[in-house]
Structure formats: structure tokens, C-alpha cells
Amino acid sequence: INEFRSAEDGTDIRDKMAYKARNGGTLGRAPLGYRNVRINYDGRQINTVEIDADRAPLVRQAWELYATGDYTLDDLSEVMADRGLLTRATARRPSQPVSKNKFAQMFRDVYYLGKIDFQGVIYDGRHEAIVTQDLYDRIYLGDVARDQIKGELDALVAAAQTEIDTARADLGLD
After folding, report:
1. What is the pairing mode between strands 34-41 and 44-51?
2. Which of 19, 22, 52, 155 pairs with 122 at a CA distance of 20 to 30 A?
3. Cα–Cα distance between 131 and 133 in angstroms, integer?
4. Which helix (H) or strand (E) holds 74?
5. Cα separation of 136 and 60, whole Å?
């Protein structure tokens, strides 16, 4: 009975999360640059998300700087920490500089476009976008192009090394 109940509860939660995503609601804690807030709407308390006035301009700056191609993720982490972009403090952790991994994750997150990604399906969100589609595309497509170029270069290096090894073997230089 408990196994059935657990599966049923899991399905129920998944359905409710899908409903919330389809309606543009944020699933879980808002990402850096946004704040979870509780507002009074028609006499009811509603949980929603709004732009974090302190961090959102800095998050946008990070996107713009990275889009130039002049900054690595490590450089960006240092520069943005110097400009005051820190993570939100929690009960267990104080505010700290945003890590390069967090930036990498942020630059692939459609949430910053005002959208919600739930199980690979993109929905329009009710929250305000911090970045434009153009800025998102410059970074995302730039990263994809860099990955493709790196892959092609790695393949060329491997092919060249194979030819060198073959030539050395033919000449008896091994």
C-alpha cells in the first residue's frame, strides 16, 4: 500500500508542477537576480518572483561582459565579485562570489529570458526577463560554436598524431 501511495503522490506532485510551469510559475527558489516574495492579492497571500533590484543589474552586466568574448568564466567571477555581485546568504552559508560553474549554469538558463523550462519543455514565465533573446543567443550560440571548434581541433590533433605515429613506425623510429 505504501509503494502505491508513494507512486501516486509522486504523480500528483509532477502534475501540479507541470500545471504551475504551464501557467508561467517559478518552480522552487528564484535564481540569482530574482527574489521570491509574498504579496497580498485580493486579500490572499501569493508567492511570486520579482526582479532583485540590487543583483539584477549586475547579473545583466555579467551577461554583457561574457558576450564580448573577452572574459573567461574565471575572469568574470573575479570581475563581478569586485563589482559586488554575490550569492544570496542562506541560513547555512554567507554571501560569496558567484562561482564559474554558477555562471556557466546561468548562461544556459532560459529563466533569464522570462521563460520556464520544465522537463525539456519551454513555457512563457510570469516573471520579467533580465536579458534579451539576442544577448542570450550571442552567449549560447557562441558557446556551442566554441564547443564545436574545440571538438574539430581535437579531432585534427588526433589525426595528425596518428599520421606522425604511422610515419615513425614506417621509418622504424619507435
Report:
1. antiparallel
2. 52
3. 7
4. helix 73-83
5. 11
